[in-house]
Design a protein that fits this description.
15% strand, 341 residues, alpha/beta, 5-stranded parallel beta sheet
Amino acid sequence: MNAKNEKYSKYALCREMLDTVDVVRKFDPSRTAAVAAAIKANGRLMLTGEGSSRIFPAKNFIRKVLTAGLNLQVVTEGSRQAMTYDLSRFAVFAASNSGRTKEVVKLLKQLRDGGNKELFGLTAQPENLLKEYARETIVLNCGWETAVAATKSVIEQALTYQSMLGHMTGSNACTCDCKNRLADAIEQALTIEIPADIVAAAAKAPTIYFAGYNDGVAEELTLKTNEITRKKSDFLEGTYACHGIEEVMSPADIVFVVDPIAEEMDKFREVLVDGVGLKVVCIATSPIAGFPTIVVPESGEGTPHVFLAAGWNILVEIGLALGINLDKPQRARKVGNEFMG
């Protein structure tokens, strides 16, 4: 993407993706200090929301908590499924960009009516319904997005949760230097030129697959594939790509492997490249031998955000190659299910 090229700048989606750079630079981690202390004292946390407000922010946080070995139980579910659980002893963080997502509001109401006071909200709208039920509601600084596909808000939501982890562990992941390095890396990932042969192969593919860690990056890009390129997609967690789905794959399909594990790539080549005959592309911080690789900068704790930005860049190029109006999906809506009560 090139902010100075009207081919990209005419679309709100591209402008909002590129806005992410300043969102990261201006992010204020101090806003989550009190919330982080409350959650750490509780010891149990449910992260909920619908769609993009949950996938990357929640799963990225869970991976980081487990990697850090923090004594904190963190789980995530969609709000309807969460309503079937006993969350009376859990702190609950509910994310809804609109602040009016029906499933999220109903969950918070149920929990509050049941006596749970450890409820927190995360939204992009100052006027929202979450604050009627939550003990504290954090309003994102990125502002409301015009494009249907959530982008800069997803990054700020994830930074919000990541900053809580920083307060709990005393890490410096959200210091000024780290934020600037992450912002620079995201900008590079958003503007790096995607090879034409990769774009062409993906544009022709019946299905675009994303494989990788269960940290929300590949799964979020799977959703964004539907919204941005209007193509079918699937998320293949870990080595799922080598455990049966190859039976229904087509040689015309393409697989993007995010943050590949070197020890697994020989199996990917055997099953997918040699077996199915499809194209496998890596998104990584260094070239992966034997595979075309989109190389992005390493950025410490923020590297998953950089992978996500690189994926956005790829999807925009695919959408434009297909002649799609990136801002006008046929059926998708900005607010999936708005609370009207």
